[in-house]
Design brief:
This protein is mainly alpha-helical. The chain contains five helices and no strands. The termini are far apart.
């Protein structure tokens, strides 16, 4: 959980904060028997943490839904950024050459 909070670049600040809040409250989870209702059915995380955790759980569900999407192709994005940097460098060189007569 900690490495996800710190290392996952796709998370917004709010998502990181929601995960941090969830992580800090995990100690209350206890033993497996703590997760059973009197009728023997299993409690959900929402049942266990209570209504005060609704925002955290909503953000967690949004993060999980987002993580199910196709991750960005970082190699392709890197190559596109390199190409754009070269294009801008060439554009700057051209502008400097065209403005040379007016530059000191």
């Amino acid at each position: 959980m900690e490495s996800m909070i710190l290392d996952c670049g796709d998370l917004s600040f709010e998502e990181r904060l929601a995960l941090l809040r969830l992580h800090s409250s995990l100690w209350v989870l206890g033993q497996p028997e703590d997760w059973q209702r009197p009728d023997g059915t299993v409690m959900t995380l929402e049942d266990h943490l209570g209504p005060g955790a609704a925002e955290i759980l909503a953000r967690l569900n949004a993060i999980l839904a987002h993580q199910g999407e196709n991750p960005p192709d970082y190699a392709q994005l890197y190559e596109a950024a390199k190409t754009e940097a070269i294009r801008l460098k060439n554009k700057k060189s051209l502008a400097l050459a065209q403005l040379a007569p007016w530059l000191p």
